[in-house]
Amino acid sequence: MQIATDAESSVPKSLVTGQVARVRLLTGLLQGVLLYAMYYATKHAIWPVTNAYFSAPLALCLLFVPILFTSAIGHLDRSRLWKWILAATVICIALGLHDAWRMDYVGNGLTDTSNPSKFVLSGLLIVLTAGGLFIAHALVMAAAEDAKRIARYYTYFEVAWKLAIQVMFSLLFVGVLWLILWLGASLFMLVKLSFLRSLLDQPWFVIPMLTFAFSTALHVTDVRPRIVQGIRGLLLTLMSWLLPISVLIVGGFLMSLPFAGLEPLWATRHASSVLLGATALLVVLINAAFQNGRVAPETARVLKMGARLACVALLPLMVIAIHAVSLRVQQYGWTVDRIKAVACLMVGTCYAIGYLWAACERGQWLSRIAHTNIIAAFIVVFLLFALFSPIADPARLSVHSQMARLDAGKTPVADFDFHYLRFEGVRYGNAALQELKSRTQGADAELLRHGAEAALAKTNKWDRTDNRRLADDQSRSRNIRVLPSGQNLPADFLGSNWDTSGNAYLVPDCLRYANAQCVAHLIDMDADGVAEILVEGEKNVSRLFLFKKEKSGLWRSVGMVEIGYGCEDTLQSLQDGRYQVIPPEFNDLQVDGRRLRFQPWFESRSACKQ
C-alpha cells in the first residue's frame, strides 16, 4: 500500500554523517561503561549507590538520556538537541528523586548506608518513564522537522512509527547477538575452550557490549528509512484487517447488555480493566486503518465502515468503565490501583469523545482522528509526569482518601486496612500511621493506636497477622452465611483457633479475621453420615476449603479445590443447591499402607473448565 509520495518518504530529514555515526557508537559504549560502574558500586555497596537520592536519578538518566541523544543527534540542530537532552535529564532527575523520597520513611532504611540494596527503582516507573519519554521524543522530533511547535499529524505519524520500529528491531538485534555469542561459547566448550563462556559471565564485558550493540542497531535502522516504512506498512495493513472482527465482538457485547444487565460485570471485580483493554485494542486497530490520514483512497470499504463503528463503540465502553470504577470508589474509597485506572479512563475518554467527533464528520474520512491523537499524546505525557510526582502521586491521594473515610466514619475502625497504609501508602501512608499512633482523642483511639503500632512493626508485606482484629466464635457466627438455610455451624468449629493451628494458609479469612465474610456449606463429602464444612474463600472466589472433624474432636482443614477465574456461575449454582456428591472416577490404590491417588491427564486444573 502506497502511503506517501517519494518526496515525502524522507520524513524526518536526516543530517546523519560519518561523524554522527561515530558519536552514536561512542555514546552507546560510554553508556555501557557507566552502567557497569553503577553495577559495580551496587555490588560492593560503595558510593553513589549508598545514597538513594543520588543513585535513583542517576540510574534513570543512564538508562534513557544516552538513547535519546543517540536518536536525536543528526536530526536536531545543536541548540534544539541540547535543550531537549537537558529537559529529559531534568525530568529523569525529578522522577528519580521523587521515587527515592516517597520510599524513604521510618523503618524502611533507604538512607541506611550499611544496606543500600534495600532501595530499588520502581519497575512501573522505569516502564512508564520509557513510554513517556518515547512520546515526548516523538513530539520534539516532529516539531523540529516541521519547524513548528505543533507539527503536522503526518510528521508525527512518520516520526513515531519510525522510532517504534527502530526500538523494536534494535532490541531484536541485541537479543539475536546475545544468542549468537552463547552459541559460539557452546561451540568452543565442545573443544574444551572456555574463554568465550567466561567472557559472557563478566558484567564488565556484557553490559557495554549490549549498549554498544543497541546504539549500533539504532544507527543502522536510522539510515535505512525505506526498510522501516515497508515493515510499518505491512504491519499496519495486517492489523487493520483485525478491526472488523473486533467491532463484531465489541458490538455484540454492547448489544447483549440490555438483556444480561450490568450485574454480571460487577461480579467479576475486574470489569473496568477488561473494558479499558477493549478500548485500547479498538484505538490501536482504528489507527492501523487510519494510518497517516492519507490512505483513504486505498482503504477497503469494510475497513472504513468498521473504523467508523469502532469510533462510535468507544464511548459506551468508557461510560461503563467509569461507572464501574465510581461504584468501587463510593464503596471503598480511592486506592492506588483505582487512581491509575482513572488516569487511564481520562485518556480513554479523550479518545472516545474525539473519535466519536471524527465518526460524525462528513467529507474527509475520519480526519479528526489526527487532532485527537495529538491532543491525547500531550495528555498522556502530562498524566505520566503527574502520577510519578507529588502532583498526583496515587499513594498520596489514596492515603488521603482512606484517612478521610476513617475520620468521617464511612470506614469502621474494625475494617480499616492499616496494612495498606504501611506497604502501599509508602511515605504518605507511614506518616498517616504515625499520626494514628499518637491519637489520644476519640472512642476508637485505643484501637487505632493498636492497629497503627502493629502495622508499623511489620517488615514483610505478606505478613498480615495482627493488622486486623482476630475473629472469635461470635464474629464467625455473624459473618459466615450457612447453607442450606436454617442450619448452624457447630460451636466447636466456630470456636477453633485457626491462627495457631499450623495450617493458617489453608484457612479462609472469615475464620481468622472479624471483618471478613464468606459462605459455608454443610455437605457430607465422604458418605459417613456426618456433614463436612465447605467454605468459600473471601475475596478469592476461585477456591473452596474443606474442613472435617477428626476423631480427637478437632476440626482440621483437609483439602481445597480450585474453581477458576471466570467461573462465578459454579459458585452460584453451589449456593442454589444445584450439586450432588459423586464418587471419584478412579478409586485410590493402597500399596504397603500408602495411598496412591490418580488424576486423569485430561482433567483441567480449574474445576469448572471442561
Automatic annotation (TrEMBL):
Signal peptide boundaries: none
InterPro entries found in the cross-reference section: DUF4153
Any single Pfam family the record assigns to this protein: DUF4153
Transmembrane segments: 23-41, 53-74, 81-101, 121-142, 163-191, 203-221, 233-259, 271-290, 302-327, 339-358, 370-392
Keyword terms: Membrane, Transmembrane, Transmembrane helix
Name of the protein in its database record: DUF4153 domain-containing protein
Protein species of origin: Oxalicibacterium faecigallinarum
